[in-house]
Amino acid sequence: MSLSVDPSQSEPKSQILSRLVHLWAMFGGVALFFVVAVNFLSSLGAMFGYPIPGDLELTEMGVAIAAFAFLPFCQLHGANVTADIFTAKASPRLIAALKAFASMVALAFSLILLWRMSFGLLDQYRYGYTTSILRLPHWLAFVPILISLSLLVATSMLTLRHSLHEAKTGGAND
Q: What start and end residues bound the annotated signal peptide (predicted)?
């Protein structure tokens, strides 16, 4: 699959954003590895009567963090689900216009999520919600999720600009 935005062909700001998105996705991978390790160790411990307390809580938070961490990467690389059968014979200009529309939708949803999740963080912090067993504050998971959404906003703007340029130029890469 080709990149939606080729960072090597773009200006330094795009390259910096691309690097941040890649590093953040690696952070998501580390979070997912942590989840797998906790579940493995908890299962192993359960066989001997020593499961890890709060493993479900850590799994819930870790998977949420990881899932959100991968969103900007998917947007940057055009790795979201598409139905290519409908555009198999479409012109490059039409495909670029559809990609621009998809980037606008991604931008709108990421802005809405960022806005509402920010209030969610404030509520979780204000009311002191914690997990049942480990007593981890819920708001801790919101911090990396908001970073992910901020990167998704920036990446959606980048892919939108790139797709609009492609639609205007007929899909030709200048």
A: none
**pTM to 2 decimals?**
0.88
Please give the C-alpha separations between residue 60 and each of 51, 71, 135, 136, in angstroms, as whole numbers: 17, 17, 14, 12
Percent of the chain with pLDDT over 70: 92
148 burial type by CB count under 10 A (0-12 exposed, 13-18 middle, 19+ buried): buried
User: Cα–Cα distance between 53 and 104 in angstroms, integer?
Assistant: 43
Structure tokens at 157: 């703007």
pLDDT digits (tens, 9 = 90+) for 84-98: 788 888 888 988 999
What lies within 8 Å, CB to CB, of 116 at 6+ separation is none
In angstroms, rounded to a whole number, what is the distance separating the alpha carbons of residues 21 and 170? 28
* Dihedral sign from CA coordinates of 71, 115, 159, 169: positive
Rounded to whole angstroms, the Cα distance separating 3 from 75 reads 10
